[in-house]
Amino acid sequence: MLANGRSSSYDPTIVERIVTLPQPDYEADDILVVSETDRLRALADDVRIKIVTLLRDRAQSTTELAEQVGLAKGTVAHHLKVLEAAGLIRVVRTRKVRALTESIYGRVARLFLLKGDDDESSHVRVRLAPGDARRFHQRIERLRRDIQASATSDGEEYELVAALFPAELRS
């Protein structure tokens, strides 16, 4: 049984043999299966992916994350709220900075396993040449634009979640 209340066919010992999970400086579950639309949507943004990646090894404040991401603190704070509302990160501790209390954020799990609604895994890991990766990224972007252009007010609501990014797992 996972922390999010779901049962999983994933065996953490198998995952541990394949991937050495990072050891953050705070308590976190080993694995979170991400299959809910709101969580997948939260991870579909480049800035939020970067934030979640930065939190893999250690908890950080909004100020620290803003410096690393190169965005304003207010913008990073917004993205942190989206990730927190989706249950992907949480406040792991606080500290006093002058007269204010600063929140330090961490991931809820060391590893996120993305899973679509269908029985087949929607996650694919491959090695690509840089040119091929750019072409696939452009194709995903064209698909997103085509789907948005096809929107109609009387149709059934659908969502598209797709991303192509470097897999930087440590072994």
Which percent bin holds the helix content? 25-40%
How is the largest sheet built, in terms of strand order?
Answer: 2-4-3
The level-1 CATH class of the domain at 12-123: Mainly Alpha
- Shape descriptor: globular
Question: Would you list the SSEs in sequence order as H and E?
Answer: HEHHEHHEEEH
Estimated structural class: alpha+beta
Do you know the CATH architecture of the domain at 12-123? Orthogonal Bundle
- CATH superfamily (homologous) name of the domain at 12-123: Winged helix-like DNA-binding domain superfamily/Winged helix DNA-binding domain
Mean pLDDT: 81
- Return the CATH topology of the domain at 12-123: Arc Repressor Mutant, subunit A
| Proportion of beta-strand residues | 15-25%
Largest sheet: 3 strands, antiparallel
**Which runs of at least 5 residues are low in confidence (pLDDT < 50)?**
none
Computed over alpha carbons, the radius of gyration is: 18 Å
Number of strands: 5
DSSP helical segment count: 6
How far the N terminus sits from the C terminus, by CA atoms, comes to 26 Å
Q: Which helices and strands occur, and which strands form pairs?
A:
Blueprint: H1 12-18, E1 29-34, H2 37-42, H3 46-54, E2 60-61, H4 62-69, H5 73-85, E3 89-97, E4 100-107, E5 109-114, H6 130-149
Parallel strand pairs: 1-5
Antiparallel strand pairs: 2-4, 3-4
Helix pairs in contact: 3-5, 4-5
Provide a quick synopsis of the model.
The chain has six helices and five strands; from the N terminus they run H-E-H-H-E-H-H-E-E-E-H. The chain is of the alpha+beta class and 171 residues long. The longest helix is centred in the last third of the chain and has 20 residues, at 130-149.
